[in-house]
Design a protein that fits this description.
CATH superfamily of the largest domain: Glycogen Phosphorylase B
Helix content: 25-40%
Shape: globular
Number of helices: 14
Oligomer: single chain
Structural class: alpha/beta
Strand order of the largest sheet: 3-2-1-4-5-6-7
Strand content: 15-25%
Number of strands: 17
Amino acid sequence: MDVLFLHPNFPGQFKLLAQALAARPGMRVYALGDRSWMPNTDHPGMTVWTYDAPDTAADGVHAYLRGADAAVRRGQVVARFLMVEKQKGFEPDVIYTHPGWGDALYIKDIFPDAQVISLLEYFYQPRGADVGFDKEFPLSMDDIFRVRTLNFVQHMALENSDTFISPTAWQKSRYPQRYQPDINVIHEGIDTDALQPDPSATLEIAEATSIVGRQTLTIPAVTLRRGDEVLTFVSRSLEPYRGFHVFMRSLPAVLRSRPQCHVVIVGKLQAHYGPMPRHGSNWRDVLLNEIAPQLDQSMLERIHFLGHVTYARYLQVLQVSRVHAYLTYPFILSWSVLEAMALGSLVVASKTPPVEEVIEDGQNGLLVSFHSPEVLAASVVEALANPEQYDHLELLHGKWCVSALISPTRSCPVICNC
C-alpha cells in the first residue's frame, strides 16, 4: 500500500503515524512538504519530497482573503509537483492531509481513486469558542467578519475528502453539524514508551540577562534536578491564546510563597495565534514589566526564559518539572500537556475545552479557572508545597498513547483496511 502525507511542515501532526506505517511490511510511505518550512531531519523508511515555497499573496488581495490566496498558491505548487510524479507512475492508495494550508485543494483531481483522509484540527467561529473568550481583548466587528472568512479552504476540504478525523470531541464539535456524523475522533497520540519520568533528570540553565524596565538584571546560572521546586510553562509562542498573561500574573504570589521555586518558561516571542501587544515589542516584555513592581531581585532571578528550544531540551524541561501550568482558550489541544503528564509532571490546567477531555480534576491533574491568576497561584503553591498529596494521580490515560492509534485490531480510518 502506498500512503502519501501532505503537510507543509512534515511530519507535523503525522510524525508518529508516519513512522509507525513506514515500519510496517508492505507499506510504502511518501511525504511532500515545503522545503523552507521543513527541518533537516532524516525519515527512515520514507520517501520525502520537498517543493519550493509558493509565492506570497498578491498585492491588493483583501485582508480577509490573504490566507485563502496563499492556500491556492500552495495547492497549485503541490498539484504541479504531484502531476509530474503521477506521470512517472505514482498512484497513492491513501492520502493523509492537514487541509488548512491548501496542500490538498486539488488532490482529488489528480488522484480521484485515492482515499483522502483529512485531519480536521479547528473550524473557526466568531462566537462560542476562542474568539471573544478573553474579555480583556474585546472584539471589533472587523474581527468577527475576518474570522467568518477563515474557513474557506476547509470548506473545500470537507467536500473533497473521503474520511475525516479530529483530535478531540470538542474540536470535532466546532465543525458544521451536517459533517459531524462523518468525523472520527482520533487523537494523533504521543509515544508513551519513549516519554517516561526520569528520576535522574537535570536541566542546565546558563547565565542570562533580563531587561526589566530600564534595569538590566543578571540571571545566575542554575542546575535544576528532578525533585526540585520547578514550575514550567511551555507554548509555541508566549501569548494570551495559551494563557501566558494569566500565568505571568500568578508568579508574584507563587514566588513569594515558595522561595525555592524556579520558573522555567519555553516559547517564541513572536505571537502565533493571536495579535502582538499594541504597546511593547512582545508579550514577555509587556507582562514582565507589568509584574516587576511586585517582585524583588531574588524573585526575578528565579524566572528563566529559554525561548525556542530543541525537542530534546524541551523534554529535559518537562522531566525536571514538579508542576506544569497549561492554560488555553477553548482551542486546539497542545501535545505539551499530554507529554508533561507522561513525563511525570503534575499539570495544573485551565478548565476549558478540550482540556477537560484529558484532565479530570483531582484524578489525573488539577483544573482551575482560566481567568483567575489568584486561583492558579493558589493551586500551584499547594502542588509545589505538598507533592506527596498528588502521588496517587493517574497522570495519563492509555487512550492518548500512539499505540492506541495504530493497533491492527482497532477499527479506525487512520489507514485503510486496518
